Amino acid sequence: MLRKIPLFASIEPAKLKLLAYACDKVEFADGQVLFRQGDEGDSAFIVLSGTADIVSETGGSEVVVAQLKDHALVGEMSVFCDAPRSATVRANGKLIALKIGKGYFLELIKEFPELAGRIIRELAFRLAKTTADLAASERAANS
């Protein structure tokens, strides 16, 4: 199953077995929260199947800012930055994910620099998309 996840495609099978033992397979029902905005970042998740909503909470209201689907990585920013979660992530239907503890996640990054490169590229892509989305919504508001 791990070999099918692009993030882990280059990791040798023996290391994938160790990863499988170090992770927890977790299931979430519709509406169940993986983590809340402001929580400590103690783990990252990889969506194996299902969909999750990324929800921003401001001023007592919630806005779904993105959706995650199969093979998406989430929660890594707070693990990397040792900062509180920047958003809430909630299952949208049944969701199955791998939960990777902070310590093991950081060890993986040290051992497999190409994995760090892939994660950095994904973060840069998300930042560019968010910036473009904000610019588009500003243009729409000013029209």
What can you tell me about this protein's structure?
With 143 residues, the protein is of the alpha+beta class. The chain is built from four helices and eight strands. The chain has helices at 13-22, 76-81, 102-111, 113-142; strands spanning 24-28, 33-35, 43-49, 52-58, 61-68, 73-74, 88-91, 95-101. It has a four-stranded antiparallel sheet with strand order 1-8-3-6. α3 packs across α4. The longest helix is centred in the last third of the chain and has 30 residues, at 113-142. The protein is globular. It starts with 12 loop residues before the first helix and ends with a helix. The relative contact order is 0.20.
> What is the helix content?
25-40%
Which H/E pattern describes the elements? HEEEEEEHEEHH
Report on the biggest sheet. Answer: 4 strands, antiparallel
What number is the mean pLDDT?
A: 87
* Coarse structural class: alpha+beta
Main sheet: which strands, in order across?
1-8-3-6
| Residue share in β-strands | 25-35%
